Amino acid sequence: MAWLHLLIAGILEVVWATTMKLSDGFTKLNFSLLTIIGMIASFFFLSKAIKLLPMSLAYPIWTGIGAVGSIIIGVVIFKDALSLKTWFFVCLLLIGIIGIKLSSNA
92 with 37: CB under 8 angstroms? Predict the structure, then answer.
């Protein structure tokens, strides 16, 4: 269950990062509120996961999910352009996240 909580926390990190961009510097109330709710929910699920998982695993995986997810959202929704070199390092980040999960005893 801790890994599921961590996955949910990571997805919610992508949600709040996206809504923060859409809030236009916190000038749009609906997106600003969604950002705050997403942050609270993300931290809540991270705190649930960290009760059972080592912090040295949970935190980097949470941030990694948020980073890779935000990159994908940026490219798909906001039409961010990434170089081939950048995509290479995004793949390395993803491999690192998967490697941390697979090599852990938790």
Answer: no
E strand residue ranges, the chain:
none
Contact criterion met (CB below 8 Å) for 9 and 42: yes
Q: What is the DSSP letter of 80?
A: -
In sequence order, the 6+-apart residues with CB closer than 8 A to the CB of 95 are: none
- The ranges assigned to domains in the chain are 2-103
Going residue by residue through the chain (106 aa), what tens digit of pLDDT does each one get? 999 999 999 999 999 999 999 999 999 999 999 999 999 999 999 999 999 999 999 999 999 999 999 999 999 999 999 999 999 999 999 999 999 888 887 6
| Angle formed by the axes of helices 29-52 and 2-22, nearest 10° | 160
- In whole angstroms, give the CA distance from residue 16 to residue 66: 10
Under 8 Å between Cβ of 36 and 24:
no
